[in-house]
Write the structure tokens for this entry.
Amino acid sequence: MNILRFTNPLGYNALSDSSLNNLLCDLKNETYYDIPKANVVEGKDNFKLELSVPGFTKEQIGIQFQDHLLTVKGSVDEKPNEEEKYLSREFGLKSFIRRFSIPKTVETELISASFSNGILTIVVPKMEEVKEKEPKDILIN
């Protein structure tokens, strides 16, 4: 069985909630990362990762693969506008990082990505020898 796993960049399951992450990092007065939601789909020939990254452009997103770890990063330099004063602010762009542990049974050279309507889709093809094949009848002699 092939398994594609994600890792939490903060290291704690409890901190995967972005509101708790924001609160803790605000208390420490440090820069923090947002964690985008992801769908992981296993098909017959590949794995497909879909990340929800609204507001980002494809130029702001980077994807790297090394040592069976796929890293997706989004960077944004949001500079405050001195002329505007927010009375309420419920959303904004924040940098993010998300890592996925990739099994050794994939074609790493054929990983591809596309970006449309705030959804980043990464396709990770399986190796030919690990693809599920249709059942074959064996004749008995």
Notes: The mean pLDDT is 78. The beta strands are 5-7, 38-42, 46-52, 61-66, 69-74, 96-101, 112-116, 119-125. The chain has one domain: 5-79+91-128. Residues 18-28 form the longest helix (11 residues).
